[in-house]
Fold this sequence. Notes:
Layout: H1 3-18, H2 22-33, H3 36-58, H4 61-66, H5 69-95, H6 112-124, H7 127-135, H8 146-175, H9 182-204
Amino acid sequence: MSWDSIWLFIVIVFFIAIIPGPNALLVLSTALTQRKLFAFVNVLGVSCGFFFHAFISANGISLLLSNTPMAFEGLKWAGVLYLVWLGYNHFRAALRAQEGVLIVVSASGSKLYKQFFKGLLTNLLNPKIVLFYLSIFPQFVSTDAIVTDSLILGAIQASVVSMWFLVVILMADTFKRLLVQKRTSQMMNIVCGILFVGFSIQLALFQL
């Protein structure tokens, strides 16, 4: 794997990272409606998801999954239900909004490990990421060092995405003070809920 290939991969994953998707929405909504620390932990979970994708890609499991329609559909619908659940939590938070109080999306979110698994599951239950590791990813992996190159590229993608999400979190934090107003907090949670449900519909319609 040459340095030219690495730089090209960095450019590709950066542009993929800045395209709005479930991972970005999770991090942004957490940064806006909960503690900044929780959003950082979301990012850690998302990053670990990329290592997992790289590992299963190196071992041919992603290819097996894509060639097994029932398994791929199962992954897709698990992702759909999970995104709907995240959207529901935001709608519920909108109903509980109070003046001068920043509403946490869910009571369970107060524990860091649950925020970690939110990020991890949002990444792992996205079949589009599986397809990325089947189509684009293998083009950068040397046939004589599949596992090593896969893990290196997974680490690169995790690093690039994490750096972008850290910028997103810091930008979101500057606007967070506006959310202590009840109507603003309600509107933000409703918008996030609609976006999560929208992503779930988009995923439900997705076909190989």
